[in-house]
Amino acid sequence: MRIQLSIIIIFFLPSFESCSSEDKTTLLKIKISLNNPQILNSWDPRTDCCNDWIGVECTHRRITGLTVAAGDVVGHIAEEIGDLRDLVILDWSSLYRLRGTIPRSITKLKNLTYLRFRVTELSGPIPEYISELQNVTFLDLSFNRFNGSIPGSISLMPKLEAVQLNRNKLTGSIPESFGSFVGKVPDLYLGNNRLSGKIPKSLSKSDFNTLSLSGNKLSGDASMFFGRNKTTVTLDLSRNNFHFNLSKVKLAKSLVSLDLSHNRIFGELPLELTNLRLDHFNVSFNRLCGSTPQGGRLQSFEVYEFSNNLCLCGTPLERC
Ligand SMILES: *[C@@H]1O[C@H](CO)[C@@H](O)[C@H](O)[C@H]1NC(C)=O
Ligand SMILES: *[C@@H]1O[C@H](CO)[C@@H](O)[C@H](O)[C@H]1NC(C)=O
Ligand SMILES: *[C@@H]1O[C@H](CO)[C@@H](O)[C@H](O)[C@H]1NC(C)=O
Ligand SMILES: *[C@@H]1O[C@H](CO)[C@@H](O)[C@H](O)[C@H]1NC(C)=O
Ligand SMILES: *[C@@H]1O[C@H](CO)[C@@H](O)[C@H](O)[C@H]1NC(C)=O
Ligand SMILES: *[C@@H]1O[C@H](CO)[C@@H](O)[C@H](O)[C@H]1NC(C)=O
């Protein structure tokens, strides 16, 4: 019986395709929408898409991972992407002439946990419907040309762990809803956009592990990101127009990286800075005054991390 079975298996093996024909057809449509680029040469209809095609991962004959990277691809994201129903990882990056937007059909991918379109020319608004992808933990739309405002509905994605929207052309303010994520507060990267206005007060309720707002046009008070009870590790508020009194701020013990450079922050450096295990620190180009607290890791930083303030003094700067 066992011998018979193995004969049958051996007999069928050479012609057995592990790729479902439905998924194969879909992938070939995607290939056409990307204008049959060289990086997809391995996507040959005569071969098995699960075993032979670069960037394709399968589980039980269905496509669960699709990685397309680094190529001069002229095209758009095909509507048919939504037919790859079992997709868990969708990772497209460095596709320099991938244009258009993210099609609505993507919301059919209920099992998607990892969504990345990074370093492409995708443009227009980031669609609100992205938040219908309720299983996504990692959302990376960085280094694209998305414009318009950040959809507040992102806060409704319950499993988010990281959101990277940095290096786009996003405008408007940070959504009020980012003070109340339905799940845990994700690491948030919004740097190098064109965001403006004041930080909504609601954000004081969110305790970010990592927050980067660098290189925008945000203004006013950003002291809500500080607080003794926070567990923030990395805080980058550099290159904005923030204006608040740093003397009044209480620092979280967890802070390891703090960049406040290029703002209009005033007051004095808090003494608590000497208790932190800082490995990155920059308060240059602000309006700080008073003597630099002495101790901890603070004096291990260069003059350039303290320079160009109103009247800050003491090592590593000049004596007070
Ligand atoms: C999603 O994942 C679940 C559990 O792993 C699986 O049963 C299901 O078939 C997958 N596909 C869809 C479309 O839900
Ligand atoms: C999330 O994925 C699970 C399987 O992993 C699936 O059963 C469920 O329907 C998905 N949830 C949503 C909200 O899409
Ligand atoms: C986004 O960019 C497009 C194309 O450049 C432009 O037509 C549109 O007005 C922009 N939208 C916003 C909100 O800036
Ligand atoms: C910080 O946490 C302590 C203990 O959990 C609590 O009593 C206190 O009110 C909190 N302080 C602030 C400013 O939230
Ligand atoms: C900043 O706050 C400190 C402590 O409350 C206060 O003494 C100081 O006068 C404030 N500085 C300015 C410029 O308002
Ligand atoms: C701190 O900011 C200044 C001004 O932008 C810059 O010259 C310096 O290199 C920065 N230091 C670090 C460690 O990033």
UniProtKB/TrEMBL annotation:
Membrane-crossing segments per the record: none
Primary localisation category: other
Places the protein is found: Cell envelope
Signal peptide range in chain numbering: 1-21
Location of the Leucine-rich repeat-containing N-terminal plant-type domain: 21-59
Superkingdom as given in the UniProt entry: Eukaryota
Record has Mitochondrion as a keyword: no
Repeat in keyword set: yes
Keywords: Leucine-rich repeat, Repeat, Signal
Family statement: Belongs to the polygalacturonase-inhibiting protein family.
PANTHER family: DNA DAMAGE-REPAIR/TOLERATION PROTEIN DRT100, L DOMAIN-LIKE PROTEIN
Protein name as annotated: Leucine-rich repeat-containing N-terminal plant-type domain-containing protein
Organism per entry: Capsella rubella
